[in-house]
Design a protein that fits this description.
alpha/beta, about 15% strand
Length: about 200
Amino acid sequence: MIQVAIIDDHTIVTDGLEKLINESEIARVTQKAYSVAGCWELLRNGQPDVLLLDISMPDGNGIELCPKIKEKYPQVKILMLTSYGELATITRALDAGADGYILKNSMPEEMYEGICAVAAGERFLCEEVDILLKSSKSSLLELTRRELELLQLIVAGYTLPELADKMCLGYQTVRSYRKNLNIKLNAHNTAQLVQNAKALKLV
């Protein structure tokens, strides 16, 4: 049976997850902690097969914790379990060494599958995250020369009127290009567009 530890600062979440996992008959929760400090104490007392790790905690960040855990306890598999579904956050977590990424709104079956997969040494992404990453990668091929030029100028901090002037295009044309960029990079505002572009190493 797979031994699981949960690191999440919400007691109601950890208790609910513990009940679900213990009922699965494939894994058992052996340890729980509610902070970064608690996580280190937990690991010093014994290492689980799989660590379910949240991102936001009162005394730190799960993504920044990831490489440190991997360095000290490389055998521990880390499955990020979080409500953060933004492309840049997912990419940062995977680059930091997470073995998998699952959203808290996923079905229990997906969580069981994720625990089994990372315990077996495989990478696991819940369906929603998998679709997002695949669509983002395919969008790289769809960016036109003009869209890439616009993206670089947006990252440089130019406003829409300045972009139109720089690119020798009409204001409405630039707005249309900008709208397409937002769709392709799954962004809802400038900050998210820049963040996602950097995560995908487009700029």
